[in-house]
Amino acid sequence: MDDALMQKAGRMLGAWNRTLILTHDRPDGDALGAIGAMKRIIELQGRQAEACLHGDPPPRYTFLTDACGLTRWPPSGGQTSCPPSDPADPSVIDAQFDGIVILDTCTWNQLEPAAAFLKATRLPKIVVDHHPTREDITGQSTELVALIDETSSSACGLLYEWARRMGWELDRPAREALFAGLATDTGWFRFPSVDGRTLQAAGELIDAGVRPDVMYARLYEGHRPARLRLLREALDTLRLIDGGALALMWLTQPMFLLSDAQASDAEDLVNEPLVIGSVMVSVLLSEMEGGVIRVNFRSRSPEIAGRDVDVAAIAKQFGGGGHRRAAGARIQGSLDEVREQVIAAVRAALA
Ligand SMILES: [Mn+2]
Predict the structure, then answer these.
(1) Could you state, in order of their start, the residue ranges of all structural domains in the chain?
(2) Which fold has domain 227-350?
(3) What gap in Å lies between CA 230 and CA 269, rounded to an integer?
(4) Quick check: 269 and 304 in contact, CB under 8 A?
(5) Which residue, among 226, 247, 259, 343, has the nearest Cα to 293 in the 3D structure?
(6) CA 185 to ligand 1 centroid distance, Å
(7) CATH class of the domain comprising 3-219
(8) How far, in Å, from the CA of 130 to the mean position of ligand 1?
(9) What angle do CA 187, 250, 222 make, to 5 degrees?
(10) Are strands 18-23 and 99-103 parallel, antiparallel or unpaired?
């Protein structure tokens, strides 16, 4: 990451007394960790920040949302009694903040329902992201500085490097939030995106007091029983296609109801079939409300699978995006239709 750019973004942020912090819809551990840590970093410097979420975070991240004081979109600007009635009108929110930091995404559709506001706002923006899928999200902003590094395994890793470069203080909630992002975006440090920088950042956070065993229990051993019931339902649908190269599972609305599970309980279930040696690509289709099928894709490293399947490219065919080894899309249609389309697309990529 370019030092001059980090310094420039650091000076910009330092000049804002009231910062609005946003991340993508359906926030994951990296998104929540990044906005939580950003908020704590700014507050430790004696300035105001509001980190707003859109979408329900999975329950296992409650420790982050509580410790860092994350709130719900639209922002209140400290005026909890009178949230703006029309978030698409930028003037109300613009009057309450000096600038906006957007973390872990750089695409308009991931920023719904704040996208209309973000297109119209005049406030300057700083973007911190590590995704290859990106758009120009300047909109009407007077300035945009983008700290983007696709080689970083997480937005939290990038934020940590930025904070260290700037000499910013971290407290315990900030350190735990950053560690949560580093750990969850790398599947607890096992994905191919892990490099020395990832482990160095994690190591420094551990040396500063973060307990990896406590973090592991909070992140991976705090599920509700509903998650295990949902896993059972998903495993019951498992189909191995093309000699076991493609693993396919699906979850219907009745399965969610039967399991007393929410959409967030399906997080990471797509990884389960990867314990089978033959599987090169794993796909999970989840039937959401309103006739939308959420599709999660995973693929293995070519060193393991013997084949390099770019699931971000497959997801893109369906209007989605993500990383080469982990991607997703939301597709309008019936489960049967979408399943056939997705199987065809993956088989074409495997052929
Ligand atoms: Mn991320």
Answers:
(1) 3-219, 227-350
(2) Diaminopimelate Epimerase; Chain A, domain 1 (3.10.310)
(3) 9
(4) no
(5) 343
(6) 6
(7) alpha beta
(8) 7
(9) 40
(10) parallel
CA distance 340 to 349: 14
Nearest alpha-carbon partner for 202 in 234, 167, 176, 166: 176
- Map tokens 């493609």 to a residue: 246
Domains 3-219 and 227-350 agree in fold: no
Nearest Cα neighbor of 136 from 154, 161, 118 is 118
Residues, Cβ < 5 Å to ion ligand 1: 30, 104, 155, 185
pLDDT at residue number 263: 87
Which amino acid would we find at residue 91?
A: S
d(CA 265, CA 226): 7
Residue among 87, 101, 112, 141 at smallest CA distance from 25: 112
pLDDT confidence bin for 144, thresholds 50/70/90: very high
> What average pLDDT does the structure give for the chain?
94
Helix 155-166 vs helix 172-184: angle between axes, to the nearest 10 degrees? 140
Per-residue pLDDT of 235-272, as tens digits, reads 999 999 999 999 999 999 999 999 999 988 898 899 99
Whole-Å CA distances, 35 to 100, 112, 138: 11, 16, 19
Q: Cα of 338 to ligand 1 centre, how many Å?
A: 26
19, two tokens: 């910062």
CB 2 within 8 A of CB 34: no
Q: How far is the CA of 186 from the centre of ligand 1 (A)?
A: 9
Q: Kindly give the distance from the C-alpha atom of residue 154 to the centroid of ligand 1, in angstroms, as a whole number.
A: 5
- The residue that leads in pLDDT, 263 or 316, is 316
